[in-house]
Specification:
Layout: H1 8-26, H2 36-40, E1 45-54, E2 60-71, E3 77-83, H3 89-105, E4 112-117, H4 126-140, E5 149-152, H5 159-173, H6 193-210, E6 220-224, H7 228-239, E7 243-249, E8 252-255, H8 262-274, H9 282-285, E9 290-293, E10 304-307, H10 316-324, E11 329-331, H11 340-349, E12 352-354, H12 356-359, H13 362-376, H14 382-404, H15 413-432
Parallel strand pairs: 3-4, 3-5, 6-7, 6-10, 10-11, 11-12
Antiparallel strand pairs: 1-2, 2-4, 7-8, 8-9
The structure holds NADPH dihydro-nicotinamide-adenine-dinucleotide phosphate (NDP).
């Protein structure tokens, strides 16, 4: 903590990993006295830079841009870019640190990184977003490359922003390479990348439920967020026979007892992706639903909960409410959405609980598959990528069980994911020497 003052999110992420990995190291001589964890918490490189741009009124604006290159032991740095007013060094270090373990779990050759800016895309015109993305890339292009560091989207960065950043990189470097993932389908993007984090989270939850001989059929599901991850998690739950009764955004949540079916989901996508409005407008079209302002959806009775909005969006009281209401499975689509005390409540209750670094790894998995397709200059079918995604999510589940299952068969997915992620990175670091 004294080396990283004022970085509570980063400390939170490190403590969670350390609690699982330190006892593991104590029982494994190979990993002792090599300062492995101490080296892993120190980013290989961090760049912080000025992002000046001109708004539609001709006024000069300035934001702060970042890229945290955390660990490249097993492959080029890989991780998303976040544009949100809350972005700071602590949040990006936590995300880059988590990403290192998550990418290791995918079995694909990707190191860990994360970046972003404290820019708020809300209320900005399309041209303002383009100017901002171009200015951001003017500096970032010096630090990334298809074999060095391959960013992707995250909160506030979707296909539109990735497209603008890719265009600017190509113009500056005079190179058409797979330097970003999440690109449009017509210029190197992979089929199923938009769906993959949401789908992957549901595939992972499916594996968790299967350990109890159960599945999604007839399950009542609550999902937070209504962005990329939440939308496609909803789609997959519907396909598997579950009923999603709540979605949220930063201002409140909607409760629709009848279920948010495919037609209603299409409306949510239009509201959030095209009109860039709030989830509140859902009830205008579907008046049987209720809108609850300024609240999170965790008090809604459900069997399965999928937090898919942001970090620390589910606290102790929320965790207690979920357990009291009979929730049996929580799989995180977002990164670190549950506070440490909320996680303890889930663990004490011995319900199925998976941390984001395991359950939301489907996004970066498909990004890895996009990198492979770009290097091969080939395009795989939707089915091929989806099959690979399912296979890898199943493998991640197996890895979590390997290191997380106790003698009763109960799986501690936090322990399992952290140790499995650590082992591969640690082995590569040991082999590469002290660099
Ligand atoms: P989007 O920007 O598409 O959606 C984010 C959603 O979360 C929106 O509904 C947004 O509401 C809500 N939200 C954002 N900040 C807050 C906040 N402080 N409080 C409450 N709600 C908030 O992002 P994604 O769906 O891509 O990402 C969601 C989560 O999933 C993040 O934690 C991200 O790191 C993680 N993730 C994403 C991956 C991906 O492939 N996209 C991959 C792996 C993890 P509003 O619309 O009002 O802003």
């Amino acid at each position: 903590a004294k080396n990283n003052p004022n970085e509570p999110e980063f400390m939170q992420a490190v403590i969670e990993v350390a609690e699982a990995v330190i006892p593991f190291i104590a029982n494994n001589k190979k990993y002792q006295n090599k300062m492995l964890l101490e080296r892993m918490v120190e980013a290989e490189r961090i760049v912080i830079f000025r992002v000046p741009w001109i708004d539609d009124n001709g006024r000069t604006q300035v934001n702060r841009g970042y890229r945290v290159q955390m660990n490249s032991a097993i492959g080029p740095y890989k991780g998303g870019i976040r544009f949100h007013p809350s972005v700071n060094l602590s949040i990006l270090k936590f995300l880059a640190f988590e990403q290192t373990f998550k990418n290791s779990l995918t079995t694909l050759p990707m190191g860990g990184g994360k970046g972003g800016a404290n820019f708020d895309p809300k209320g900005k015109s399309d041209i303002e977003v383009m100017r901002f993305c171009q200015s951001f890339m003017n500096e970032l292009c010096r630090h990334i490359g298809p074999d060095t560091d391959v960013p992707a989207g995250d909160i506030g960065v979707g296909a539109r922003e990735v497209g603008y950043m890719f265009g600017q990189y190509k113009k500056i470097k005079n190179e058409f390479t797979g330097v970003l993932t999440g690109k449009g389908i017509s210029f190197g993007g992979s089929l199923i990348r938009p769906q993959s984090t949401g789908y992957g989270t549901v595939y992972f939850a499916q594996s968790m439920l299967a350990t109890k001989g159960d599945d999604f059929k007839g399950k009542i599901v609550v999902i937070s967020g209504s962005g990329n991850v939440a939308q496609y998690a909803t789609e997959k739950v519907n396909e598997l026979g579950g009923k999603v009764v709540a979605l949220s955004d930063s201002l409140g949540y909607v409760y629709d007892e009848e279920g948010i079916d495919a037609e209603k989901l299409a409306h949510v996508m239009e509201l959030k992706n095209e009109l860039r409005g709030t989830i509140k407008d859902y009830v205008t079209k579907y008046p049987n639903a209720k809108y609850i302002v300024g609240a999170r959806p965790w008090g809604v009775v459900c069997d399965v909960a999928l937090p898919c909005a942001t970090q620390n969006e589910l606290d102790v009281e929320d965790a207690k409410a979920l357990i009291e209401n009979g929730c049996i499975c929580i799989a995180e689509g977002a990164n670190m959405p549950s506070t440490p005390d909320a996680v303890s409540i889930f663990q004490k209750a011995r319900i199925l609980y998976a941390p984001g670094k395991a359950s939301n790894a489907g996004g970066v998995t498909t990004s890895g598959l996009e990198m492979s397709q770009n290097s091969l200059r080939l395009k795989w079918t939707f089915e091929k990528v989806d099959d690979r995604l399912k296979e890898i999510m199943t493998d991640i589940h197996v890895s979590c069980m390997k290191y997380g299952a106790d003698e009763t068969g109960h799986v501690d997915y936090v322990k399992g994911a952290n140790i499995a992620g650590f082992v591969k990175v640690a082995d590569a670091m040991l082999a590469q020497g002290v660099v």
